[in-house]
Automatic annotation (TrEMBL):
The chain crosses the membrane at residues 12-32, 39-57, 77-99, 111-131, 137-158. Its main location: cytoplasm. This is Oxygen sensor histidine kinase NreB. GO terms for molecular function: kinase activity. Member of the two-component regulatory system NreB/NreC involved in the control of dissimilatory nitrate/nitrite reduction in response to oxygen. NreB functions as a direct oxygen sensor histidine kinase which is autophosphorylated, in the absence of oxygen, probably at the conserved histidine residue, and transfers its phosphate group probably to a conserved aspartate residue of NreC. NreB/NreC activates the expression of the nitrate (narGHJI) and nitrite (nir) reductase operons, as well as the putative nitrate transporter gene narT. It is found in: Cytoplasm. Its EC number is 2.7.13.3. Its cofactor is [4Fe-4S] cluster. It catalyses: ATP + protein L-histidine = ADP + protein N-phospho-L-histidine.
Length: 395
């Protein structure tokens, strides 16, 4: 059942009204049962079932406060009021059920309609009580009138609190959206800065080297007809420049790769960080490989390593776990990285940190997916799945 979008104070007030109806109905049923009137007992039970059905249906509506909610609520209000009127005319024990119905009218109807409705209920309650009493007394008038006044005042307070609660909810939603935009803008700024840095590096190294090679080859072509030794020198210089540029490119690629992967395989790097990431903590980590290892592209290695580092960092800092595990699984068409722990867990739906978002962006960039399974007190599992690139057929 979906919860009402109200703070605890308003929910307590709502359930106080429902509880009042239930108590008054039980008292009325006990009274008519003691007088041997089973038909009225059945009618009272049916009225209680109708009232409870309205509460259940209201809680299950997907859009609380929408058009469907109001239409069904008003139909329910008409049926409940009619049922109360019939029972109130049949037995005086049901007259006081008008008090919680005051709140229902004030809640489901516009104020311009609800106030006359409350007045009509009050008059009906007074007349029904006088009908059973055989005379109209001041007490019979004062009781329902005071109840109607109190209900109207409480309903006005309720509406004011609800309006403030809705305004606060909209403000919180706006703040959450703004925070999301700020996180996105921050991520875009980081990517733009990295892109600019890479552009500068390429311009100052690879592009300049390529330009030098082109100029040397043009000069050699010019000298081929008139000065063959000079042309040979130019070609030699171009070859040397190409070698230097190739070495520069390799250094550039190595600078982009994680240091843990420069001198080791992905499996070895994962095994090493599984130990180092939880060093100095009570967590005991274990690394396993499942399936037949296969060579992966450099960006796959870097992505899986970064996700393992981030997930293990969360384990060591936040989980309070005793054990953690890292499993690298090779399947026919995908490679999977599973990082799990037996710590305190959390609610992934309320996670607002940048770490999980960064992991998802890394995996999404390679066409994969990231799954986070956790619950308070049940540990956490982070599973990254990447599709394997097509393998070249063996020659």
């Amino acid at each position: 059942m979906s919860d009402y979008p109200f703070p605890p104070t308003l929910r307590l007030l709502r359930w106080t009204v429902h509880g009042t109806f239930a108590i008054l109905l039980v008292i009325a049923l006990a009274g008519v049962a003691g007088k041997g009137r089973p038909a009225l007992v059945l009618g009272g039970v049916l009225l209680g079932v109708l009232y409870a059905a309205g509460i259940v249906i209201e809680g299950r509506l997907p859009h609380f406060g929408g058009t469907t909610h109001l239409r069904l609520g008003r139909v329910w209000l008409v049926l409940t009021t009619a049922g109360w009127a019939a029972l109130a005319l049949a037995a005086p024990q049901f007259v006081w059920l008008a008090f919680p119905l005051f709140f229902a009218h004030l809640h489901l109807l516009p104020l311009a309609v609800a106030l006359p409705g409350v007045a009509a209920l009050t008059v009906a309650a007074v007349l029904a009580a006088a009908w059973h009493e055989g005379r109209l007394t001041a007490a019979l008038v004062v009781g329902p009138t005071i109840g109607a006044a109190v209900a109207t005042l409480m309903a006005m307070i309720y509406k004011t609190l609800h309006a403030e609660s809705e305004e606060r909810r909209l403000l919180i939603d706006d703040l959450v959206r703004t925070r999301g935009k700020l996180l996105q803008a921050e991520g875009d700024a980081v990517r733009l800065a990295e892109r600019e840095r890479l552009a500068r590096e390429i311009h100052d190294t690879l592009a300049q080297g390529m330009s030098s090679i082109i100029l040397l080859l043009r000069a050699a072509r010019r000298d081929l007809a008139d000065d063959l030794p000079a042309a040979e020198r130019r070609i030699t210089e171009a070859a040397d420049a190409a070698k230097e540029n190739l070495e520069e490119a390799r250094n550039f690629v190595r600078a982009l790769a994680p240091p843990a992967l420069q001198q080791a395989s992905l499996a070895a790097a994962l095994r090493r960080i599984s130990d180092s990431a939880v060093a100095g903590t009570p967590v005991r980590a274990r690394f396993e490989i499942s399936g037949t290892p296969a060579p992966l592209p450099a960006d796959y290695d870097a992505t899986l390593l970064r996700i393992a580092q981030g997930a293990l960092g969360n384990v060591s800092r936040h989980s309070g776990a005793g054990h953690a595990g890292v499993t690298l699984t090779y399947l026919d068409d995908v490679v999977m990285l599973d990082v799990y722990d037996d710590g305190r867990g959390f609610d992934p739906g309320n996670a607002t940190g940048f770490g999980l978002r960064a992991m998802r962006e890394r995996v999404s960039a390679l066409g994969g997916s990231l799954t986070v399974e956790s619950a308070p007190g049940e540990g956490t599992a982070v599973v990254a799945t990447l599709p394997l690139p097509p393998r070249e057929p063996a020659s």
